[in-house]
Specification:
The protein has 2 domains: about 140 residues, Rossmann fold, CATH 3.40.50; about 190 residues, Dehydroquinate synthase-like - alpha domain (Dehydroquinate synthase-like, alpha domain), CATH 1.20.1090. By secondary structure, the protein is of the alpha/beta class. The chain starts with 11 loop residues before the first strand and ends in a 5-residue tail after the last helix. The strands form 2 sheets. It has a 6-stranded parallel β-sheet with strand order 1-8-5-4-2-3, sandwiched between helices. A hairpin with a 2-residue loop joins β6 and β7. The chain contains 13 helices and 8 strands. InterPro entries: ADH_Fe/GldA, ADH_Fe_C, Alcohol_dehydrogenase_Fe, MAR. Keywords: NAD, Oxidoreductase.
């Protein structure tokens, strides 16, 4: 076995059905007394309901989180947290709310309690991202790692089937890229494969019946593992493409991940044959050559939008994305080839199979 490094992240995880009802006692356990709840505008009612549950522990509901954490949004939220003199940011929702809490923590070192209601996974990571002048930049800092994460599958029951499917494929992308990460290790690879299997089984069941509680629980488990993968090892070409799609064109984060994943793994199918063979097997196939098609077919089964043009990418997008990705690349197990990447992005733009 090759040499490797493994670092466990210090997060306290509370997992299980009904755990959200314990938020007051969990906050007390960590001695939080002045909490700012962060939501998106669409989830403000959920934030107000949680505020009632918390009583005098909550000093404010801040419903201004938006996709990709624009710098100006982050700056206003930081000022509000400082004005209120809070001792904790409680983010309830998906990547937008948790991302805004991280932006606050990066500047103020305030602890975060995260209650995910999607399968995004960023709650398990030291990764943060912000967008300025149509460019999304990311970084890592231990200050943004949530102190507490509360996973309650019951909170995902109101997540529509299509959003659940896209969010789950977003989570799967974290696990997939962990398999061929520059700093991959056998512990994270075990988690990644179990995550992929869990999501592959759970997401079609949720699309068939959004109230299937067992499937919701399995998807939440898969997303938790995917988040650990994202937080523990580096990502590669797929995440660079999606950060470009989000930062440059403001495409919806989860849908961009879901659509693009088939093309990213097809690009890398021969770069790490052992990892890609494991991925194919986790997806129900046999050969590393199948990975892109297997994910493409899973997206079809999930009724996900198949074309980037359908979620807002303009006609010139494939060329622009390929150029930005190649000009400022992340690590990848295979070298970046502009022509091939541009052709794959054209296929993703049209929703054609990756092969």
């Amino acid at each position: 076995m090759q040499m490797f490094n493994y670092k466990a992240l210090p997060i306290n995880v509370h997992f299980g059905r009904g755990r959200a009802k314990e938020v007051h006692s969990i906050l007390n356990e960590y001695n939080f007394r002045s909490v700012m709840i962060i939501t998106t505008p669409e989830q403000e009612a959920d934030g107000q309901k949680l505020a009632e549950q918390l009583g005098n522990l909550c000093v404010s509901v801040y419903p201004k989180a938006v996709m990709h954490v624009p710098v100006e949004v982050a700056e206003q939220a930081i000022l509000e947290a400082e004005r209120l003199n809070v001792d904790c940011c409680l983010a309830i929702g998906g990547g937008s709310t948790i991302g805004l809490a991280k932006a606050i923590a990066l500047k103020t070192a305030l602890p975060i309690v995260a209650i995910p209601t999607t399968y995004a996974g960023s709650e398990m990571t030291t990764v943060y991202g912000m967008t300025e002048n149509r460019l999304k930049t990311t970084g890592k800092d231990i200050k943004v790692l949530p102190k507490v994460v509360i996973y309650d599958p019951e909170l995902t029951l109101t997540l529509p089937a299509k959003i659940s499917a896209c969010s789950g494929m977003n989570a799967m992308a974290h696990a997939v890229e962990a398999l061929y990460a520059q700093d991959k290790n056998p512990i994270i690879s075990l988690m990644a494969l179990d995550s992929i299997r869990a999501l592959k089984d759970a997401l079609p069941a949720i699309v068939q019946d959004p109230t299937d509680m067992a499937a919701r629980e399995k998807a939440t488990y898969g997303a938790w593992l995917a988040g650990i993968c994202l937080g523990s090892v580096g990502m590669a070409i797929h995440h660079k493409i999606c950060h470009t799609l989000g930062g440059t064109y403001n495409l919806p984060h989860a849908e961009a991940h879901a659509i693009t994943l088939a093309y990213s793994v097809h690009y890398n199918r021969n770069a790490d044959v052992a990892a890609m063979t494991q991925l194919a097997q986790a997806l129900g196939g046999t050969s590393h050559e199948q990975v892109g098609q297997l994910i493409y077919e899973l997206n079809q089964k999930l009724n996900i939008s198949m074309a980037l043009k359908d979620i807002g990418l303009p006609e010139e997008g494939p060329q622009t994305v390929a150029k930005i990705v190649c000009d400022s690349p992340y690590y990848n197990p295979r070298a970046y080839d502009y022509d091939e990447l541009e052709q794959l992005m054209q296929r993703a733009y049209l929703g054609l199979p990756p092969n």
